[in-house]
Design a protein that fits this description.
The chain contains four helices and no strands. The termini are far apart.
Length: 121
């Protein structure tokens, strides 16, 4: 690898690390366990599960947005002499899509538990 390519890649990694460090920590909410789901019998139980799934959906949306921003960053820097950022851009785009889909699925689970809770009134 040429010295100029190393410098560009090093700058890109430093910037990406800075973006990552500046992003609020995305700590996973508690994922409902099979035991908790089986134990859910009341309206309150199902509303609590729905709340947890909504937290997971929001976290996944934040992660999707984060990876979208990183992909945009790599798209800008790949115009320079570095070639590898294009591969990283593709990975970031894929992660953004995966997290977006996960957010939709978590929200669907939340909606199902809200519907169950409504039936238990």
């Amino acid at each position: 690898m040429r010295a100029s390519s190393r410098k560009v890649l090093g700058a890109a990694l430093a910037l990406a690390t800075g973006v990552w460090l500046a992003t609020p920590t995305l700590v996973a909410a508690d994922v409902p366990t099979a035991e908790r789901i089986d134990a859910a019998k009341t309206k309150a139980d199902h509303e609590a599960l729905a709340d947890e799934y909504e937290k997971l959906a929001e976290e996944a949306k934040q992660r999707s947005a984060h990876h979208t921003k990183l992909a945009e960053h790599y798209a800008r820097i790949r115009r320079g002499p570095a070639v590898r950022p294009a591969a990283v851009e593709a990975h970031c785009e894929a992660l953004a899509r995966i997290y977006s889909q996960a957010a939709e699925e978590y929200q669907a689970l939340a909606n199902e538990h809200r519907a169950i809770a409504a039936e238990l009134e």
